[in-house]
Design a protein that fits this description.
By secondary structure, this protein is α/β, with parallel strands linked by helices. It has 11 helices and 11 strands. The strands form 2 sheets. It has a 7-stranded parallel sheet, with helices on both faces. Strands 8-7-9-10 form a 4-stranded mixed sheet. The chain starts with a strand and ends in a 6-residue tail after the last helix.
């Protein structure tokens, strides 16, 4: 198979886990490929992905080979595959816009961004870099709350003719105007806000669906998340958190038997604890009534490395995006978006979305 050529915006923990994973699975086969939902997607394996362009704004990353940049501060995720070969791809200076929250300046360099002195790339420069690299798919790994920056890069991919995977909660595919633009140009988009392999959202959704199927009335629930990576540091600015809370809350509300009043559901990042690094702790509580209106409650604690937890899902999303390109399918890819993302344009249960994405991969569903 030909390589799937991707570009990355934001060479952070998620990019690090993705690149480590691409190399890690080169020495595996389908029988021992632990941690993947799909080993083979219509002939494409995990290691058939190649990073051909990358953009960041941190001076410790800009100008370095992307294989080195993924291990620079403030990245702090688990290193499970250290020996990444040199790619020859230098990280280019991106466009800052609202990609960095003002409060980040209050923290030491080890934990936050150190802005590069290099001149920011223009829209024309980004488009040229994408075209010159022959990138087919752009992954958006910008920080939460980067509303202007995400729209800037979405504009760039439309001009460059590159597919778009929006891994964070700025609503592009969910916006009718943007949806129309991607459809008109026949450019695939999978969005929004990546749903981790076994994370807080998928567990919360599964339990909410279980309550519904078993006749348990869900009355109140919360999901509290804490971690020590730059994503959680960024989200200390509550003004940047609105789209994230909406994305995570709607992911759960969409599968409950009856939508909960806003005062009875709280879902979202709760605090930043530096020493936790990329390890995310989730505290989940669900209260309801069983037979005879007898009260019950459920409490769960999940501890998981955040970025590897998303990388396996992204590897599938990339390959589904490539299938759309091969099959000349453009616009929103509803089936992959429903299965891989927290806030797709159309919500389905995870069982429904799983069947939809399997049909999409098999060519039975065009989207």
């Amino acid at each position: 198979m030909n390589k799937i050529k991707i570009a990355i915006v934001g060479v952070g923990n998620c990019a690090s886990s993705l690149m480590q994973g691409i190399e890690y699975y080169k020495n595996k086969d389908g029988k021992d490929a632990v941690g993947l939902m799909h080993w083979d997607i219509d002939g494409y394996k995990p290691f058939d992905i190649e990073v051909v362009a990358a953009f960041d704004i941190d001076k410790r990353k800009v100008g370095k080979d992307v294989s080195d940049a993924i291990f620079e501060h403030p990245n702090c995720t688990t290193v499970f595959c250290k020996n990444i070969p040199q790619t020859g791809v230098k990280v280019k200076m991106g466009n800052v816009l609202d990609g960095v929250s003002e409060h980040m300046k209050e923290y030491d360099d080890k934990h936050t961004f150190v802005l590069s002195n290099e001149k920011e790339s223009t829209k024309e420069g980004i488009i040229k870099a994408l075209k010159d690299s022959k990138a087919e798919v752009l992954l958006n790994y910008l920080p939460v709350g980067s509303e202007k920056a995400v729209r800037f890069y979405a504009d760039c991919v439309l001009e460059a003719g590159v597919a778009f995977i929006n891994c964070m909660p700025v609503f592009i595919a969910s916006d009718p105007e943007w949806e129309k633009r991607f459809k008109e140009k026949n450019i695939p988009i999978i969005a929004e806000d990546i749903k981790s392999q076994l994370g807080a959202t998928i567990i919360h959704r599964t339990l909410a669906d279980l309550f519904k199927k078993r006749g348990v009335k869900l009355e109140r629930t919360y999901q509290l998340n804490i971690a020590g990576n730059t994503d959680f540091l960024t989200m200390l600015n509550r003004n940047r958190l609105l789209s994230k809370k909406k994305s995570k809350t709607e992911a759960v509300q969409s599968v409950v038997a009856k939508r909960l009043d806003s005062e009875n559901i709280h879902i979202g990042p709760s605090d930043y604890v530096p020493w936790q690094k990329d390890n995310k702790i989730c505290y989940l509580r669900m209260e309801g009534k069983i037979f005879g209106s007898v009260p019950m409650n459920l409490e769960l604690r999940l501890s998981v490395e955040d970025s590897p937890n998303s990388a396996g899902v992204v590897i599938d999303a990339i390959r589904c995006c490539k299938l759309a390109l091969d099959r000349k399918i453009g616009g929103v890819l509803y089936s992959p978006s429903a299965y891989f993302m927290k806030h797709p344009p159309k919500q389905f249960t995870d069982d429904e979305a799983f069947k939809m994405v399997e049909d999409f991969i098999a060519g039975k569903r065009v989207d």
